[in-house]
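1st attempt posting a full record on here, be nice pls
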Amino acid sequence: MTLESFEAEETEEQELALDAAAFEEAKLSAFETGYQAGWDDAVAAQNAETARLHSDLGQNLQALSFTYHEARAEMLDALRPLLFEICEKLLPQLAHDSLAGVVVEQLMPVAEGLTSVPIVVTANPVALSQIEGIVAHKTELPLSFVAEQTLGEGQVYLRFSESETRIDLDAVVAAISNAVTTYFNADLKDETDV
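the predicted structure (as tokens):
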């Protein structure tokens, strides 16, 4: 019986004969090939990392934008009742309380040149007593006060000999209330459209 031999057969060593210049050129070529492959790998890795960062940045900005709009909507929802209360209760009271001061503020510059001409202050009877009490103490101008039922509590007319000035705090309060209502209605419409 003969068994198979697994020993490595001795091979003849072949010697390659290269001159020094060809050897250096082969070495340089191998270096260049390796360097270029490394460079290409680095560029590909950098491009992949840049693409990943751009993707992450886009997702973060989108999340941030959503968070901003969500926070804004929640803040406006929280402010809505407060602003409506201000428009319904606080602004009318402020207008009522400041009407006499506004009348004095409008009256004084015009009246300085018209010291001898009587000035007619026309207002709603409810506001007239307050205006009369404050204006009469702040000036010594010739004033006459006329009650007019058709005027709102925030409306006053100052009539001079040839001109007239209108003060309408009711319109200011209504305009502010309308602006707040319009803003929130538009905001609600935008939310339902999205």
